[in-house]
What we know:
With 337 residues, this protein is α/β, with parallel strands linked by helices.
Amino acid sequence: MKIDLRSDTITKPTPEMLxxxxxAEVGDDVYKEDPTTNALEEKIANLFGKDxxxxxxxxxxxxxxxxxxxxxxxxxLIADKYAxxxxxxxxxxxxxxxxxxxxxxxxxxxxxxxxxxxxxxPPDFYHSPxxxxxxxxxxxxxxxxxCYDFDEIKKIRKxxxxxxLGFHLDGARLWNALVARxxxxxxxxxxxxxISVCLSKGLGTPMGSVLIGDAKYMExxxxxxKVLGGGMRQVGYMAAAGIYxxxxxxxxxxxxxxxxxxxxxxxxxxxxxxxxxxIDTNIVIFSTDKKEEEFITEMAKKxxxxxxxxxxxxxxxxxxxxxxxxxxxxxxxxxxx
Length: 337
Ligand SMILES: Cc1ncc(COP(=O)(O)O)c(C=O)c1O
């Protein structure tokens, strides 16, 4: 039995999701004539209590568009040193928007209001880049699926208001945070100017992300998406998968979280595991006294697949296609080491 814990992006659509895809009514979304995409956008905008939402092919493109909407070339954004927008979007921040990043040495990919405040360049000091945007990530990917304390988010919002900064959330895995913390989409909509959410990670669709925001930012979003090459035609088939996922696959994320915690408990008992990071959601990051590659190869021989993250860290990600049967087998393989 193959057990693939490399990422929650490896899932394949279920028969029910495929049925929703096949049944979708579609049109040309570049002309905004795709009823299913329009319905998805309206549904998600309402869910977050925001003016508008726009469907994007990927989370990276949704984040990059948001950065473009908030900034001018030469300006600077503030983010944690682990931020996906900085580390894993191909340098898009500088390529697409001509913006630099002030990186904060946060905790598990999360930053505080005090750290943000201390990182803002004085706007009248024309030698340094003008700070114009703060980007948070929730849950954090490289930070091991960690969830923000919502009160800290509110404090950061206040700092943004005081200093006239845009506030963007990379919510690729926001669904996981909402389920883990019992929070609501509206709570998040009220704090951020723009939010990107992914449908193709924990929620299990083949592709797609949505950028949500206030009209004043979103007015230009469709133009920026076009510039980035993200205008799509009969994409209602994918939007239908998104609607299905929103209606059926959010609450079940709790199962992924439970399994991740159970894996963590077993890892803690293994003599060669030197550290297991706290597990808030579906990502398990741990270190061993073996060489990274050695453990990955040993496990691959047992058909268990996962990634190393550098600096001796290894990562398991639980997801929709990681079944109870696979979970039992993995636990027994780990215990057998
Ligand atoms: C936190 C975070 N943001 C954004 C993305 C980008 O999503 P995509 O792969 O759809 O571009 C990812 C992908 O893993 C992610 O983990």
